[in-house]
Design goal:
Blueprint lengths: L2 H7 L1 E14 L3 E6 L3 E8 L1 E6 L2 E6 L3 E4 L4 E6 L3 E13 L7 H4 L5 E2 L3 H14 L7 H20 L3 H4 L6 H12 L7 H7 L4 H12 L3 H19 L4 H7 L5 H12 L3 H8 L6
Antiparallel strand pairs: 1-8, 2-7, 3-6, 3-8, 4-5, 4-7, 6-9
Helix pairs in contact: 3-4, 9-11, 9-12
């Protein structure tokens, strides 16, 4: 499994709400911090946007992809402005301390394929006022279709794009871990792999992933274990061994500490229907 596939498989998304705004040239704000991920589809008009001190011009037909915890300022530059805003929560489960948009290198202004998004956004808005117990399912599925278009267009070269903003040495270690799932390397081994001291490696890992190396390795192993538990009939001991953890009891304790489930409980709740 390459890093791109693992990122997408581990991306968790939850729709929150959608709303259309009819605005004018008075619309502006300075230094607002976003509490959720936001998509702004510009139906009409244009405006200036500053995100984390970088400036953009957003125009009709474009999609603005704004990360949670980003600091934004904006100002209308047209007399009339219509924006559809979609708020949602999203994270890459084993990189939850880092914005999924930054990890996947998603551009702030999305234009390629934007015409494909307009009917999807329009359908969501049309259904937003419908009283239905199934509305949340429709909204969630529509949001995922929008993100599919964004990711497909943005990640045309997944190998080059994934982790593009990371230090090459951290990139090398992550690919090494993915290529050797049956190993549980010591931090010293990883430091030697990229010719760094353990302390320097730790600083880089915290800077680029928000986690110390061992914490990152454990969370990566848990993500790999989830997929094996859900999609195979392999025993817990076999999965543990295949992931480089040679003591199944330790694997079970680690899995429960990270997920709240024992491996068997996770399989019972999230496992696919399998032939016996």
């Amino acid at each position: 499994m390459n890093s791109y596939q693992l990122m997408i498989d581990s991306l968790q998304v939850r729709f929150l709400h959608i709303k259309s705004y009819a605005l004018d040239y008075h619309w502006h704000a300075a230094k607002r911090t976003l509490h959720h991920s936001v998509l702004w589809y510009v139906e009409q008009g244009s405006f200036y946007l500053t995100l984390d001190e970088i400036s953009y011009t957003c125009q009709e037909g474009q999609l603005c992809v704004l990360p949670a915890n980003g600091e934004i300022s904006y100002r209308a530059i047209s007399d009339e402005l219509r924006i559809i805003s979609i708020n949602f929560d999203a994270e890459i489960s084993f990189l939850s301390d880092r914005s999924w948009e930054h990890v996947l290198n998603i551009p702030v202004i999305f234009e390629a394929g934007a015409a494909e998004l307009q009917p999807l956004v329009g359908e969501m808005l049309d259904h937003s006022g419908v009283a239905s117990p199934f509305l949340s399912l429709f909204m969630q599925s529509s949001l995922l279709r929008i993100l599919y278009v964004v990711l497909q267009q943005s990640m045309a070269d997944p190998v080059a794009a994934s982790f593009q903003r990371m230090d090459e040495r951290i990139h090398t270690i992550i690919h090494y871990l993915l290529a050797h799932p049956d190993q549980m390397p010591e931090v010293a081994q990883l430091a030697d792999l990229v010719s760094l001291s353990e302390s320097h490696l730790r600083k880089l890992f915290i800077q680029y992933t928000g986690q110390a190396p061992l914490h990152f390795i454990h969370r990566l192993k848990i993500e790999q274990a989830k997929k094996l538990l859900a999609a195979s009939t392999k025993t817990i001991s076999q999965i543990s061994y295949e992931l480089g953890v040679h003591h199944a009891n330790y694997f079970t304790r680690l899995f429960k500490a990270k997920t709240g489930f024992t491996p068997q409980q996770y399989r019972q709740q999230f496992g696919m229907w399998l032939n016996e």
